[in-house]
Amino acid sequence: MKNMRYFDYAATAPTDKRVLQAMLPYFEKNFGNPGSIYTLGRKSAQAITQASTTISKILNCKPDEFVFTGSATEADNLAILGAARINKKGKIIISPLEHKAVLNSCEILEKEGFEIVKLPVFKNGLVDLKTLEKELDEKTILVSVVMADSETGTIQPIAEISKIIKDFRASKKIKEKTNFPYFHTDASQAAKYLNIDVEKLKVDMMTISAHKLYGPKGIGGLYIRKGVKISPIIYGGGQQLGLRSGTENIPAIVGFAKALELNAKNKKTQYLKIKKLRDTLEKGILKSIPKVILNGHPTQRLPNFLNISILDIEGEAMLLYLDELGIMVSTGSACNSQSLEPSYILQALGSTHEYIHGSLRFTLGHQNTILDIKYVLKHLPNVVEKLRKISPLKLKIK
Amino acid sequence: MKKTKPDITNKNTGDTWIYTQAVKEHFFQPKNLLLEDPEETEYDAQGMVGSPACGDVMRVWLKIDKKNDTIKEFKWRTFGCASAIATTSMLSVMITEPNNQKSEEGMKIDEALKIRPQDIMKRLGGLPDRKIHCSVLGDKALRAALNNWFRKTKQFDRITTASQQIIDPNTKTTDADIEEAVLEGALTLEAVQERTKVAIGRPDLIPKVEELIRFYREKYFDPNSK
């Protein structure tokens, strides 16, 4: 589409051409099943080994500590349900900012008798770690805290949480030496710009997703630290050490590794470049439009995220006016959700409904240039002005 | 405004909402919008429905010809999504359009009161199921403004109130609550109970509730739809 200004990279990103090139040989030419021992099969098995090695170097883990899944959602399910199934009972501590893949898995477990505890969140989006310390007990089998949430991009102190959990395990609170609780983090949004070295983060499990990193859709993965025992959630031929049966999706696995490799190369440069663009957009909007507030943490936030609430007007209406101008964003407004419920993440941050209905999320990516930012800064104030003329509301910022 | 693609896709569900050309037109070029804040006595009646927390607020201003009992002018402002804005705009057109007017003074109040949510929707070429409540709100905004007029002119017998009947005394659920739940897409007993808690702990009320759900479902939705 001509004049497309895409600001929804947190939803998904286009596949990088180099990723696509790397994948192509594995559709027609090297199509073998990696489970077959003749040459063609071995070629596919080799491709997996190579991809695993590439990924493990980036995560600073062993190749067999990473399981490929059909999506980040499946990886989250594997971590949560897998840890629950092996323990059969216990307590799971999560944040309310988790992806639905974590939240809804926990909802099912709650019905099965597991105790689910959601940690409180401060208005700036950070999880209350004091409560985490208090909640940790002998029954706790798993803690899962998202590295950066998908609405505001607020970054949680994962290494700090790991330390709290490590100290708890070593503390006198528990009688026997234990590996529990496990600590899982969903890094689907964060992996693009943050360090995902599992030795630095000290996590036991970590979810990542390919399509947020300009890789293909339909593939995600879960890092599982050696010694961490979880049950599979998919049963069959016993592929991937029995943790994820099903013939491996070789082109996607190759593409995933390539995307991670490309991403690891110029992370720092990309971080600074995208942050500069985002900051220009943020400052420009806050300066040119009255009655706008920032959602999430002012500084401890992914460099490509900008989530704002524009008072007196509704998100879906803004989204459609912007779409007419070729600008693509997302909103937490109820009108844009299946349940007609406003964004649960903004609600967890203590934002009231009238603020959430007027929320807009810009998430930047590779293709965005300063021209896109200027284009938004030129048109958004007019869209807001027009919709405010239509609106009978004149709310005051609290 | 050169692009004409009328669909948007919900990122959470993948659902495609197809807005009709009429919805688009009224959303992007609203008709009869109140542009300037009015003087206190400029309009004869006004009404407001909805709440900012719920995501929809509609406010209507009317000029009324008392002698002929007609609506001469219909101005409005709406906070809400595309459907809410288009609904109010379309309603304003239906009330004031020349070919519908029997006389120069505007549409008869009694005629205006006959307009139902379905009529607005029909003129808009339909709304997605989940957006039907927007058309109901438009209808309610007009009624609120007319009630305001009736009160001002002491025509108390003409005031229309949404009669509400308590269905479940335990949870204080009314028939209006059930209507609202159905409009928001709760089409089964379980879905309505999830929203209203009606008849939970009172199984004897379930047949009555089911009957109401069926009634509202048939009233607002195509009976053949899910």
Gist?
The complex is a heterodimer of chains A (398) and B (226). With 398 residues, chain A is of the alpha/beta class. Chain A contains 13 helices and twelve strands.
Fill in the keyword field for this structure.
heterodimer, A: 398 residues, Aspartate Aminotransferase, domain 2, Aspartate Aminotransferase, domain 1, 2 domains, 3-stranded antiparallel β-sheet, globular, B: alpha+beta, Sufe protein. Chain: A, Arc Repressor Mutant, subunit A, 4-stranded antiparallel β-sheet, two-stranded antiparallel sheet, 8 helices, 8 strands
Structure write-up:
The complex is a heterodimer of chains A (398) and B (226). Chain A contains 13 helices and twelve strands. Chain A is an alpha/beta fold and 398 residues long. Chain A folds into two domains: 17-265, 3-Layer(aba) Sandwich (Aspartate Aminotransferase, domain 2), CATH 3.40.640.10; 266-390, Aspartate Aminotransferase, domain 1, CATH 3.90.1150. Chain A has a seven-stranded mixed β-sheet with strand order 2-8-7-6-5-3-4, sandwiched between helices. In chain A, helix 6 links the parallel strand 5 and strand 6 (182-186). Chain A starts with a strand and ends in an 8-residue tail after the last helix. The mean pLDDT of chain A is 95. With 226 residues, chain B is an alpha+beta fold. Chain B starts with 6 loop residues before the first strand and ends in a 6-residue tail after the last helix. Classes of the chains: A alpha/beta (398), B alpha+beta (226). Chains A and B meet through helix 10 of A and strand 4, strand 5 and helix 2 of B.
